[in-house]
Design a protein that fits this description.
By secondary structure, this protein is an alpha+beta fold. The chain has 13 helices and twelve strands. The protein is elongated, with a radius of gyration of 28 Å.
Length: 404
């Protein structure tokens, strides 16, 4: 931080070491830290940054526990490290991404909010000593008069009102509670106070560093090591696509997909992150129609199954006959029918009806039998049937079509 001797960090261990101090030394340091209010304010508001040592510590914790961490967890860890061992001047700074992309603000019902915005919000806490606690939240849906926010550590999404009249009396109580934390010497209270008062800079710098480091990946508000993610096999993804087509469940969540693929025995974080990566890479087969905060997956194309047409179907724009009854569909024709929204009609199934919204059951016996056949590759090139096909072939297909 480049301070002079009179401005030296009171939490720095003797001799400039970055190692953690004993409990007695920490208590003493916290008292001295509060005495140097000018340094406290200046460091957290202007000089705070993420060090490479912080990212190494995050990676070690994720690797040892196998657990994904929220931004609140990571911010607590960094703040605790600074209170115990100072600014870690001996460690090089972490990489930093685009600062304009990671703006974090204090919750303000009078401000404009949109999907993806991050905030520091005070919510009720289960702790008897601290009835309120600051957390990191992310807006997942915004209306004119309210926003829906995913708050770290809270399972259910929270709805916050907007507008001048949305600031309730309890907001004053929570602010007084947070200010009181700043006068206490216990470590947990100091961590909550710093996150509340200086969270926009601290969490913003944290997001920039995590985004710039390829070791970490985010999913639904959680961060994890990319290399620890367990990806499903290609066969599992093919079975998933077939089940989604057979059952037509509509958009599904990752939890539903994990259950359908029987990945519950795998470490939860590793399975979810690996599955999300695999689904996002198979753009020709799966599509996320939700958001990064709440992904919802649906089919982007026909699954790799052998399809036999039950009805004749023609292209409504070019009037080219795409299939006739009894015809085994090639990958190209199946893709054309899919793009036109006619594949289910050709197979004699309801085109748009959702069988069981949001839920995928395990593939049935009929699906298992279909999988035993060699299906066309889903990765092959898809070419549209030329409109100027030979007249003889066109007349023959129209005769077959009229019979169907």
């Amino acid at each position: 931080m480049g301070l002079s001797d009179t401005d030296s960090d009171p939490l720095q261990a003797p001799g400039g070491s970055d190692s953690a101090m004993s409990n007695a030394e920490q208590d003493s340091a916290l008292e001295r830290y509060r005495m140097y209010g000018r340094i406290h304010e200046r460091y957290w508001s202007k000089h705070f940054g993420i060090a490479e040592a912080d990212l190494i510590r995050f990676a070690t914790q994720m690797r040892e526990s196998g657990r994904a961490m929220t931004l609140t967890d990571l911010a607590h860890d960094v703040i605790r490290a600074r209170l115990r061992a100072g600014p870690q001047l001996r460690s090089g700074p972490a990489l930093s991404g685009d600062r304009s992309s990671w703006v974090v603000r204090q919750w303000d019902p009078g401000a404009n909010w949109r999907e993806g915005d991050r905030m520091i919000v005070v919510v009720a806490s289960s702790s008897q000593e601290r009835p309120y606690a600051p957390r990191v939240g992310e807006v997942i849906h915004a209306e004119d008069d309210s926003v829906v926010v995913n708050v770290d550590g809270i399972t259910a999404s929270q709805v916050f009102g907007l507008g001048p009249g949305a600031r309730a009396r309890e907001d004053e109580a929570t602010e007084a509670e947070m200010l009181g934390f700043g006068q206490r010497f216990d470590e947990d209270a100091q961590i909550d106070f710093i996150l509340w008062r200086y969270g926009p800079r601290a969490v913003g710098r944290l997001l920039q560093s995590l985004d710039a480091d390829s070791r970490f990946v985010e999913l639904e508000g959680l961060w994890f090591l990319r290399k620890l993610a367990v990806r499903p096999t290609g066969g599992m993804l093919a079975r998933l696509a077939a089940a989604m087509f057979e059952q037509n469940p509509g958009p599904v969540r990752l939890d539903d997909v994990v259950a359908a693929l029987s990945l519950a025995g795998t470490a939860q974080a590793a399975a979810r992150f690996g599955l999300a990566q695999a689904l996002s890479e198979r753009t020709g087969l799966f599509e996320n129609i939700g958001s990064a905060a709440r992904p919802l997956w649906t089919l982007a194309g026909p699954p790799p199954l052998v399809f036999t047409a039950r009805h004749a179907v023609y292209d409504p724009e070019t009037y080219v006959v795409l299939c006739v009854p009894g015809e085994t569909l090639s990958a190209e024709v199946a893709q054309q029918l899919w793009s036109a929204g006619l594949l289910r009609s050709a197979l004699g199934r309801t085109s748009d009806q959702v069988v069981d919204g949001g839920t995928i059951r395990a593939p049935g016996l009929a699906l298992q039998a279909a999988e035993q056949q060699a299906g066309p590759s889903v990765n092959g090139p898809v070419t549209a049937m030329p409109a100027d096909e030979p007249d003889v072939r066109r007349r023959r297909r129209w005769r077959l079509f009229s019979r169907g």
